[in-house]
Amino acid sequence: MSNSQKLLERSNSLIENARFMTLATQDPEGAWASTVNYVPLREPLRLLWYSLRKARHSQNIHARPMVSGSIFMTGLPGFGLDGAQFTGMASPVTGDDLEEVAEFYYHRNFPDEETRRNWRLPLTEFEGDGARRFYFVEIRSWWLLDIDQWLVDMNDQRIAVPLAPLARA
Question: Can you tell me the distance from the alpha carbon of 74 to that of 70, in angstroms, rounded to the nearest whole number?
């Protein structure tokens, strides 16, 4: 397997299995980081989550939609951990897409029907004056922890991964 194939495989494993990301936003007072539970979408590569509209990161997204974030997992075979960092543009889900997006989110995040039923919020929570919104971050750049280089010199570095193959996975 080529190095680029390994990077894509590692990236896809993180995207599909990590479930939580740290999302960094910015407001006039500075940066803010929040951990949110996401599900991935492809073509283009997007991460989907929901948050309260009044949450600091939600308000920041409305003011400045450029965000960055990280995904991290431990307890993995081999090196024991892996992680990615990304930048992207975040936006709320609105209009005709809302029902389909909510359905996808709940089915993907909670495959068990009973668990999904217990977690599912009514769609009205995400519409109009509802307290919550679904958000996407459309990934613009993606980097992985450079494990191979770390094994050589123990320097914590990142390696860029092309987005086009990740968007299609």
Answer: 13
Q: In angstroms, rounded to a whole number, what is the distance separating the alpha carbons of residues 126 and 128?
A: 7
**How confident is the model over 9-54, as pLDDT tens digits?**
999 999 999 999 999 999 888 899 999 999 999 999 999 999 999 9
Which domains does the chain show, CATH number per domain? 3-162 (2.30.110.10)
Angle, CA 18 vertex, CA 16 and CA 20 arms, to 5°: 120
Query: What pLDDT, in 10s, does the model give residues 127-168?
Result: 999 999 999 999 999 999 888 887 788 888 889 999 989 888
- What are the beta bridge partners of residue 70? 22, 85
The Cα 78–Cα 65 span in angstroms is 37
Distances (CA, A) of 66 to 3, 49, 52, 163: 30, 16, 19, 17
